[in-house]
Specification:
The protein has 92 residues and is mostly helical. Helix content is 88%, strand content 0%.
Length: 92
């Protein structure tokens, strides 16, 4: 019901010269967020598994996992910012 007008607007935008750039900007922002989610999820799963195997090293494992998660989040933020900058240069 509400998806049809959205798809029509996307098709209309893609038909002009700026449409591909806007689609690329959206893909850049979206894929960087998806990649960060997958990466942080894998870090969390591996951290939990390694802490269950070696409880005495839980503090070091947790510290390293938090640092890695922050670095991944920073890279995802850069990807989203680049995507939005592309969108701003191409926008009307």
């Amino acid at each position: 019901m509400a998806i049809l007008p959205l798809l029509q607007a996307a098709a209309e935008t893609a038909s002009n010269n700026r449409g591909y750039g806007l689609i690329g900007a959206g893909l850049a922002a979206g894929l960087s967020a998806i990649g960060a989610g997958i990466g942080i999820g894998r870090i969390g799963g591996s951290m939990t598994e390694s802490m269950a195997r070696q409880p005495e090293a839980a503090g070091r494992i947790q510290t390293a996992a938090l640092i890695l998660a922050a670095l991944i989040e920073g890279v995802a933020l850069f990807g989203a910012v680049i995507g939005f900058q592309i969108q701003g240069k191409i926008a009307f």
